[in-house]
Design goal:
This protein is mainly α and about 70 residues long. It contains five helices and no strands. The longest helix has 11 residues. The protein is globular and about 30 Å long.
Length: about 70
């Protein structure tokens, strides 16, 4: 399950909009909001795109996209 609170905090800190970050990461704004509504999960390609655009550390990436997935 994705930690959208953490993801959006980092997005806000970057000074860019969700729309701009999504586009740069290669996903549509609609796809981002669908993921947020629980319609599907981020694909590996989408995670890599967001990670690269936001320059996330491995720890940040894992905390955001693997939240609750690992015991």
């Amino acid at each position: 399950m994705t930690d959208f609170e953490m993801l959006e905090s980092i997005m806000k800190r970057s000074g860019s909009t969700i729309e701009a970050i999504s586009k740069a990461a290669g996903i549509s704004r609609e796809t981002y909001y669908n993921r947020k509504k629980g319609i599907g999960e981020f694909t590996a390609k989408e995670i890599v795109g967001i990670t690269n655009v936001l320059r996330l550390t491995t720890e940040e990436r894992d905390a955001i996209f693997l939240a609750g997935s690992v015991n």
